[in-house]
Amino acid sequence: MAAKKSTSKPARKVVKKAAKKPAAKKAVAKKPMAKKAAVKKPVAKKAVAKKPAAKKTLAKKTVAKKPVAKKAAAKKTTVKKAAGSAVKKAAVKKPAKKAVKKPAAKALQKTAPKAAAKKPVAKKPAVKKPSAKGGKASAATLKVYDHIRKVMSAAFTASDSVNGMRKSFDDYAKVSDETMKLSGSMNRLTVEGIPCAWYTNNDTDTGRRLLYLHGGGYLAGGLYSHSGLCSRLAAATGCAVLAVDYRLIPENPFPAQLEDALKVFRYMRGHGPFGTTPARRTFISGDSAGGGLTLATLMALRDAKEPLPTAAIPISAWTDLEGTGASMKTRAKVDPLAMGEGANPLAKMYLNGKKAKDVPLQSPLYGNFKGLPPLLFHVGDAETLMDDTTRCHKKALEAGVKSKMEIYPHMPHVWHLFAPYLKESTQAIDAIGKYVRSFS
Question: Which of 74, 201, 382, 390 gives 184 a disulfide partner, CB atoms 3.0 to 4.6 angstroms apart?
Fold first, then answer.
């Protein structure tokens, strides 16, 4: 501390020290001795030796709090904290700046590597990686979303809601000219007054037959809206596909739809596209309301102890008319069809004053799955009806049914209708074909 002061002031220090002793005059007389003491500066050395040690401790604490800070910034911070904790002596403040600079820098050099090791910055990007399946939706998928929104907007704003809905479902697949084109041939017929159509190809095995039940909320859809899809299913499965134009609500309340499906299935077991011949293998498939009707048909056949099909394929099935699935909310902003909103009036119309849980054949999620044939469920990850499928699949497994479920990332409601425009649509149809062909 005395090193910075001029040589004329050591007398003060001596006086201070002498003041503690009774012989003040002797202290003054021994001035030469005081000079020697000032040269040796034993007290000053001890004070300097002790204080840097205390400052090192302070520097370490400062470094521990800010391990990543730059050296220059750390020096300033250390000096401020060291100055503030210097035993409240005003005389210590100035020497502290010089004495602290070097020790603080050394402390930083020693502790900085340890502090850096404590923060594994490289792991942060791994946590932020997107976990969504399938990455982003393709441009073609987004175009399909826009198309569906326009079609459904026209349905909900029409002055005649029923005819507006029917017109919209006829246009649902018309995202391009390709989607409405047939693959193979189509032959119309009626089965007990019910309009139907056979779809075949040159390589169709007419002994293998698939009954198809279209979607449309039990109010819309038919042979026109689903002809392209039925013809592609015939090509993929190798089956003769028989599509059913069942009666619709509100003109025909439940159970008209189920009755029509049962009649045509019984017919298909003994009749092929070219005559009266028994089927070797039979299958049932359907989408949306037709997917729910597929499960209801299986349950009705089982309850009546009639022959069941070899397997069934519900697509984007509407199985819970109470709309209790979590996906009704979690997918509401993603699903361009937004069945959470649009399904309510249709459900009320189809239930006709009844509760879904009371009539499982109207809302098959609440039915008994025991004894049903093997099932393949298809559903899109962007659908509000996704949980209608996931819960049915779970119930089927719990009932001992051989059930399989395939969820397609980003796909909207019944995306199969958009083949060949969407590659995922073609992939899904091919997957159904592979599944059906696995039953030799």
Answer: 201
